[in-house]
Amino acid sequence: MGSLNLVVPLVMWGREAPTHDISCVLFTRDVRTIVTGSRDGQICVWDFEPPTLKLTPRSLLVGHTASVTCLAQGGKARGTSYIVSSSENGEMCTWDLRDGRCVEVLKSANVHSSMTAYQMLNVNDCRLFCVGNYPEILVYDPHTLDILFSLAARIQPDWISALHILRPPRRNDEVVLGVTTGGWVKVWTVSEKEVRPREPIFEHESKMIRSLNALCLVCCTYNQRTVLIVTQDDWQIYDAGDFSQLCHVGGIPGERWMGGDFLSADRVLVWNDMGQAYIYKLPTKLLRGAAVSCIVESRAFHNKQADGDNPILYGIVQPTGKEQLVNAPAWQFMTIPINNGAEKLLLRGDCEGQVILWRLADVSDHQLNQILQVQPFQPLVFTPTLNHSMMTAWAAMMPPPIGVLDQLEGEKNPPRITASLFLPLQGRLACGREDGSIILVPATETIMLHLLHGKHQHYHNWAQPMVLRGHQGRVNCLLYPHGESSRYDMAHLVSGGIDFSINVWDMYTGNLVHRFVVQAGQILQLLVPPPTCTPRIQNCICSISEDHSVALLSIKERKLVLLASKHLYPVLTVKWRPEHDFLMVATQDGSVYVWQMETGHLDRVLQGVTAEEVLGACDEHSAAPGSGAGGGSDAGLANPAVHLFRGLRHRNLAAIRHAAQRGIQQVLGEQNNYQDIHDSSKMRTCPLMIQGLRTNKQDANSHVLFFDIEALIVQLLSDEYTLMSPGTLEANELIMSSQYQRMNVLTHPASPEAAKKIAEFFGKVKDKAGEMEKKMKEKDKHDILGRAKDRAVNMEKKFRERDQHGLLSRVKESAESVQNLIQNKVDQSGFRPTTLSSAKDGSGSGRVQIPRHLDVTAQTLQIGQVLMSLLHSWGLDPSLDQTCEHILGLLKPRVPVSYGLISKSGYMSLLMPTWHPVRESEMPAINLPPDLAAELPPEMVKLEHRTQVFTGRGHWEISPALTTHHLLALVSVANTLQDMNAATLIPEQERRRKNHIQSSKANQSVNSHEDDFSRQQSVIKQGWSTLTALHTVLLPDCVVAAGANTYQPPMVEILARRWQDRCQEVREAAQALLKTELSRMGVEGRQKLVESWTPHLPSHMEPLPTGPSHFNNHQETPHTPRLEHPSNKANTATPAQATSNGTSGNTTTSASSSERSMEPHPQLDEDHYDEEMDGETCREVVAQSEGRRKQATAIILLGVIGAYHGQDSAEGFGLGNLAMQTSKALAYLVLAPACPKLPGHTPLRRAAIDLIGRGFPVWEPYLDVAKILLALLDFCADTDRLAPSMKYGLPLIPEADSCRTSSNALTLIAEARPPAFITTMAREVARFNALQQNAQSLQLNIHNTVLHRAKTEILRVMEYLIVHKRCHIMDLMVEVMDIVLHCVDPGHLKSRGLNEVFPSICGFPQVSHCPHTRRIATGAKNGSIAMYELRASKCQMIPGHGTAVTALSFSPDGKYLASYCMGENKLSFWQTSSGMFGLGASQTKCTKTFSTAPVPDIVRMNPQRLPKLVWISNKTVVLMMADGTEHRFNA
After folding, report:
1. Is 91 helix (H, G, I), strand (E, B) or coil?
2. CA–CA separation, 1450 vs 1453, rounded Å?
3. d(Cα 467, Cα 409) in Å, to the nearest integer?
4. Cβ atoms of 59 and 901 closer than 8 Å
5. What is the pLDDT of residues 1467-1525, one digit of tens each?
6. Angle made by CA atoms 518, 522, 526, in degrees to the nearest 5
7. Fewer CB within 10 Å, N side or C side of the chain?
8. Could you read off the pLDDT of 478-498 as tens digits, one per residue?
9. Angle formed at CA 1308 by CA 1307 and CA 1310, multiple of 5 degrees
């Protein structure tokens, strides 16, 4: 799951605890959290309660791909603690301890063996001192993982094996002691003032000692001159002054030392790899008097060690019972200050997953003497204070954690699940087990059975499993070939086991189709060859075995095609070169074996650099454009027939349905070639994915459920829109095709060329069909392509022979006939439920008729029901709970759900079932009916109580990030169901609703059941609205009222990054939640937010792109064509590819500079981690990208605060620097030209467009309005092509999304400041007209200008203003007419009147049009009359009155114009005369003037009741007053 998607994971752990081979351990400073890293790469976070010594596994952090070598505290920020982990392959991660969210990731060539967190003097946060397989000490920032500085060696540079940092008394710097693997001790003096980036700090002293490969170096806290150095074979005490050896102790036979620490000034604790620790008393024999410690300043202490001066062993720290540890345990010693002393704790984690804690009590000298006097000598044994593990925690849970196969009855000790595979098309989960059986269960039904209460608990046939038996032993791997490629039979499931066999199953009958046994080892992995291989290889699967062999097995022919078995070492990877017929096998020794697939011969064996280059070439080939399913040239074809052919080729029912829904009439309904502007990347994505999870190969599979919110919303809306007619969609404002088509007709010439253009388009369709026919090689596809080609030819002939009249109806009939052809082909292609063919497998005729596909709609509703039921806050509003259960169809959870969280780079945090966010002592009383509580066992009562507390309040007390993601998912899906004509999640009721929609679509008559249905739908809609309001506005107060002390509010930065999410419903949910959270913060909270994010706001002072030269004149900068939507490519790209596309460049930022480059991160949620880079280069790119990401977040957050709260002077957004800086940043994002760092259509640019529209009154003083409007119109230039196909809620391609956002922003700007919009557009129209007159001399292509291409959008905004802002239009009537006449093509006014072409503007009495003379007169506010000559495209301003013109009207014959001025109470007649024979300039003169009766002031103030002029003859006009009186005047 990519991080761009909103995904909600949850875990079904199963009855067995995951293994945890602990490699390192960390006790946090607050003594409330223990963190353990494992050799399998996982990290476990444990909650620790010191008073009760209770240890609880909280969460499992999954992300590292190698063993975790070291952990360190990462400091605190924003109320939470962080840790930093490092693995043996160079990965470093910073984790948030609250929820396990991965905050930062770094992969470099530096492998750390130890990390030490240290708080330097005069530094706010701690620093991370790291040593490892490199000859220096690297100092990191734990939050950003930037290398701040390094400590290097001049003399004998070598790997630093151990270090210690201390601050000597009365000094303002730190001293770093380090010992190299070669035995050199080095001393650095570090001060923050002396630190310079990129300049290493060299050592001040160095000395050779007798200590090779030291593991630990510790200075005594009580006496800094005493130093302990531990190696595998011995440990030694040194004097830090001159590093002279004071004492030496060898190792115990068969054991190796691992580390140590000081218990006191003269007591040393040392531990070994066998799981034991020893406590020594340092020699004090030479000290005189009442010596309490070993004083190294004493000269006698430096004398040669005598026999009696050896350290005395007096204590052994060991666990109870004997144990055999396979791997060395991890240790940590910690001293905790308490009341008046300190408590010493020793922590150990071992390979069995046990976490053992010892409290080491102080032993006085008197007690020590008593121990030494006992004969024989028996050292003091310290027993564990605490011993805990995941297995212990799992065993204590009653009932145990749920698993996916817990419904299987009669199995007391069920076999482990060893392989899992989810089949989205069938909605089934396949689980291979240890006993060789394979269980197939319905996925959503199984989840509902285990997680939710409901009627389904009483159904005996609910979630019935199918059992496949055929393996002798463990099932290692499963493969569903049809899920990888549609060329395979969708009934086949392939399994590989420990018995060397590969079985091919028929999933629908449960029969074993074929059994391959061709390899001499257990099957480890099953693969599918790429689609570009030869037809024979395309029918094969690839298997990798433990005997180092690779086999190609033909499922179609049921025989072995290739057995590559000459590999000397285990197989690592398999690559393909289909064009050369090569199969590349890489082994562990670095060799690459090249096999010929068709012949089965070993072509060559490559090693070294050549092998790496060949494998790299395979990767480049597979990632090349056009090589994958998402590449190629056909992806950009807009013809729906192409999508149909592609769907038939891939046997993809979703694609066929999508093509049928679109219909060819959408393509042919207008002169333009409308393309499919919806983002198809989510059209075929299943809303639910299930992935098996194992921390170790020997573990049973747990299962992680991923709910893809965007895919769920898209599937719900697509199913809903399929049931609705275009008229219903238009009535519900789900599409706006008619409005945009009407505007588009007005802005284009009405000429008989339309039929010719459409005929040319059909010619292109025919050619494209011919090209697709050549590309498709399958026999069944030739037939459908030939028919489609003939159909296109016939339709082309029809359009050439017939005129334009009735075009749309004929196109509709043709489209219906094509759809019938589509349906026939679908029926022939096997998509209907048919009997599976038995000719190939010879299984006989006993097969039953089983549907091959699950009902997608029913499965989607079940997925939505599970998700909403688990996320809803049960118990906060009892009346809403009743509505949710009985009306909306939600079900109450049965158990507390173990949620997960996906963070940066796909790293996951998975909550453990053993942990509950509310402590036992804080839980409220049990709220269960007494009779029910008496019937249930005590453990079930406790489980129900924990579930109620968790779903009501505990769910929202975990972490802000989890709250944010869950609220986004809950609100967006609830809004979707509410918008779907009030859909419900009850299956029976939903079926009735859809039947009603279909029946009403066919029969428009209203019956008696219509009112009942409407009332029921209003109740459902009110229920969804109440649920949305609870989680959007009321949740904090309700959770606190339920007893929660620590409600975790949503994170505003995550909501800001979702401000322009690709999915409309998620976008609106994020906007609503962010606005609510900002309002809840209050003025002080918003001020703190502004103060924290203002430093990240870029201060861009470079000149912005100029308005006309960049956005209006496209001769100098031509208008680039809209490219194919790259969403398919981007969604399938690796994080490395996404990063290289988003961060390519050489821009560097200086920390000391006050100017920051204004290039924010274009993709707010995209991973910016480049795996191809390493070391310093990668870190620079990541640092720049993270800085730009913070800039982008700051721009959106401050833009939202300014837009909604900026007009309040208390917010700081008045006429000040903050508003100016924010407006400049927003303007830059809108005006900046497209470049690799800031592409033309990104979420960030859309967010800037949207926020400029929302907060235009705040930003207006600092903006060049003309530039902004032209830039927005440039984004809307293709409205006539994109808008008619837009459907509300469905994801759009970035180009269409930018178009829609810009259109909304223009509407908001025009509504907020109508005079500014009208006057600015009028000036640009005048400039355009001047350029048009001189276009030929200036060699300008006037058709490429923004004002010409965006006529449709300008006309739409003007109509909106005419309807909603009538007063402002009346004041600027001449400017409005200039804009309207610029947009409306003059050809429409040749034969029709203005009231027919653009009737909204004719509602003003100041406007009159004469069709005979083709003139338009418009009255201005200053009393002038604008006379437009449409024939000559000229405008003449006539000074007519002293005040605003009230009404104008042409006589029927066009000879006279009557004007009336209410301010002067005067009516005038005007006559236009031209020269002889129509030559010379025309002149308009006033022929008569009459005084009229005064108008009352109440009429003057009401623009809706103005007088009108009506001609009753060619020379008589009637002045009609608002009260109905009439006055006649003769010309």
Report:
1. strand
2. 8
3. 13
4. no
5. 999 987 765 554 555 678 888 899 988 887 777 777 677 888 999 988 899 998 877 88
6. 75
7. N
8. 999 998 888 999 899 999 999
9. 65
